[in-house]
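Quick one: structure for this chain?
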Amino acid sequence: MQSMGGIKHGEPYLLNEIVENGYTMDGLSVRINGRLLQHDFQNCRAFLADPKTGCSLKVNTSLIEPLEEAGSLFQLIGELSHSGGETILNARLVRCIDGMDLVIYKKALELQRQYFQDRPKVL
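Got it. Here's what it folds into:
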């Protein structure tokens, strides 16, 4: 689904869902949460990790520099690309979400998905 301006809103996904299925999600606009592990500002690369599962994802940060120090919790929106056996998030929007309860976030996401799955389809 696209917004009125044509910019995709980023479908919410859990980091482990992307790591496990990234090769099938090429070009998809996603919204993910994770802890910033490493950040190489000279090469515009970072690694985002899920604190619970330990899954990590490489992030192209060229559109969101300067990015803060490693260790903070972030929500990123961007497009996925897959090349050379590696999935990369080309981030275009970032916000710090330190203090967010990721367990509650995951439950809310599951409930939202269930609601959209169960509601009647409108043509």
